[in-house]
Specification:
α5 packs across α6, α5 crosses α9 and α6 packs across α9. By secondary structure, the protein is mainly α. The chain is elongated and about 60 Å long.
């Protein structure tokens, strides 16, 4: 287990080196999950082209929104966000980045004091839920689903995230998942719900056990 965690830390460190790439630095296509996709969805949403919840994942709805933007701005319409499309979108409107802020807030409120790997793991749980049929289809809806995150219920979610939380959010958006697919997590020292401990455990990182 220790060697596995060390390997994950190395992978995480490599991923963090690449999270600061600006929008327009590369082409984005269907099947991509990243902080750049989230940024693009925010911009498309602000323009009225993307009308569903922000996910950070480039699916069919994102592709259709890109097509509408391309048609509206005289670009080649193929649904692929090439460098020209991304540059035009970036220069057209600035996003509020509220969803990235929400993801950083849930990471900070649930995992501040944990290692960077542990913070990324909490962000990954949120994104795994977005892709699961058992949970809502957007980052915001997953975070605010009633009864799911204690930090939302007790108000800690409103704390201002630190830089580490934002870095962890971007790392998770860029595909880093130390939990390899976990949908839940709990602290065995303070967890009161018995059902939490009955779920199949995947990995323990710091003070949290991540489960299916």
């Amino acid at each position: 287990m220790k060697k596995k965690l060390q390997a994950l830390i190395c992978v995480c460190s490599l991923g963090v080196m690449g999270i600061a790439a600006p929008v327009g630095a590369q082409s984005l296509g269907q099947g991509t999950q990243s902080d750049q996709v989230l940024d693009m969805q925010e911009r498309l949403s602000a323009l009225g082209y993307f009308k569903t919840g922000i996910t950070g994942y480039y699916g069919n709805q994102t592709k259709n929104a890109v097509k509408k933007f391309q048609a509206g701005y005289g670009l080649s319409v193929d649904g692929e966000a090439d460098s020209l499309t991304l540059s035009k979108l970036k220069n057209t409107i600035s996003p509020k980045q509220s969803v990235l802020d929400e993801l950083a807030r849930i990471i900070h409120s649930e995992a501040r004091g944990e290692s960077f790997l542990g913070q990324v793991a909490v962000g990954a749980v949120v994104l795994n839920r977005v892709q699961s049929e058992k949970f809502p289809d957007s980052i915001t809806e997953v975070i605010h689903q009633p009864g799911q995150f204690s930090a939302v219920d007790d108000g800690q979610f409103n704390l201002k995230p630190n830089l580490s939380a934002y870095r962890a959010a971007k790392a998770a958006l860029n595909g880093l998942d130390p939990t390899t697919g976990a949908l839940y997590f709990y602290n065995p020292d303070i967890a009161q719900a018995s059902w939490s401990k009955k779920r199949p455990a995947k990995i323990t990182i710091g003070n949290h056990v991540f489960t299916l």
